[in-house]
Give the backbone structure.
Amino acid sequence: MDEGPDGPEGGRGPEGPHGEDGGSGSGSGADNGSTEAGADGGAEGGGTRDRRLSTTATTVLGLFLLADVVFVCGALVTLWPVVLTTVEPGAGVTATARWSPFGLGEWSLTADTAMLLAVVVCSALGSFVHAATSFATYVGNRRLYASWLWWYLLRAGIGVALALLVYLLLRGGLFAGSSGAGATNPYGFSGIAGLCGLFSKQATDKLREICDTLLSTTGDGDRDRRDGLAAGRNGDPSAS
């Protein structure tokens, strides 16, 4: 669950250099009290510590995460039979199924649309696990700072966007030879989507490795594209 220096599990958080339990932050009451006093004093005196999230804001954020998982799980439960119906062996390419999420009308889904929605929902579920685990650890150690609020609000969106990119790469044949609807494994793709939401940093690093391999170059592009005439006018004989 380590997001590195750019994530809530970085140096300031309870899962930072002292490990998941927060080291001294999860120790005795005296230690917690001194830590809180130091954090408050640093914020008021212009130190490096951020202002801790208020009790009201913490409660609202916790309720938001609870509503998020209820909505995501409900959507997955109603969507999964539709996914299995449209991608089952023998189903036609144009086969459709009706999906009625939370009774809010009926949607006619094809196999591709159902799989895309399954990827979105499963990646959001994985993102919730990541965000909720971090949130519970922070609140338990009383070290939830206001500067990380947007990290929690955008966690699901980041995981969904990343999972969609990975899904498109997989379906496009980067790792598999067949990308037809009949060859789709909904359990496998949904599991990968959930892992992308849960381990978004690791998935991003893996995509970076793939791009470095596919788009690697041997020359110095900036040097090769320099203006030879301009360099010659500046007295560089090798430019002419």
Observations:
- Residues 56-203 form one domain.
- Strands lie at 96-99, 107-110.
- The chain is about 60% helix and 5% strand.
- Residues 1-6, 13-48 have pLDDT under 50 and may be disordered.
